[in-house]
Specification:
Helix content: 25-40%
CATH topology: Alpha-Beta Plaits
CATH class: Alpha Beta
Shape: elongated
Structural class: alpha+beta
Number of helices: 3
Number of strands: 4
Oligomer: single chain
């Protein structure tokens, strides 16, 4: 038996399996934490264009490859039409994915003990995905801690 180099696993090419959403290591998202009355915490994450641009372009290329638009063969739809049809939705989805992943990373890094789910806050401002390039997402969570039941 002859030792041969690994030619097929491709683990380095794929980048592994975690984290689910790849973040650009060259960008730093602005994350702030605000403690509210009781046990509520607000986490605000500001996502800039550098944070989501690559993911949006990759998703749009995938849409182009799979798009079934009348008048065009599959995969042959012009990128301008793909942008017109799907860019706003893809941008919103990818920016939110980046923000939520950054919020969970922040919670883990700061070792914030929380109860329940991390939810989008009703204090969230309106987001303009048509003209904006920087978006602030606000998440709300209940802080966990030591609770005593009984006397």
């Amino acid at each position: 038996m002859v030792a041969a180099p690994d030619l097929g696993s491709g683990a380095e090419r794929r980048g592994g399996s975690s984290p689910f959403v790849r973040t650009n290591p060259n960008t730093i998202m602005k994350i702030t934490q605000e403690n509210l009355a009781g046990h509520e915490v607000l986490i605000s994450v500001t996502v800039s264009e550098n944070d989501y641009k690559d993911a949006v372009e990759k998703a749009l290329k995938e849409y182009k490859r799979k798009a079934n638009v009348p008048g065009f063969r599959p995969g042959m739809v012009p990128m301008g039409m793909i942008n017109k049809l799907y860019r706003k939705g893809v941008l919103a989805e990818e920016a939110y994915k980046q923000a939520s992943q950054a919020a969970f990373d922040y919670i883990e890094k700061e070792k914030i003990d929380y109860v329940g789910d991390v939810l989008p806050s009703d204090r969230q401002g309106k987001l303009d995905f048509d003209k904006g390039t920087e978006f602030e997402f606000v998440f709300e969570l209940g802080r966990g801690g030591q609770y005593r039941v009984g006397r």
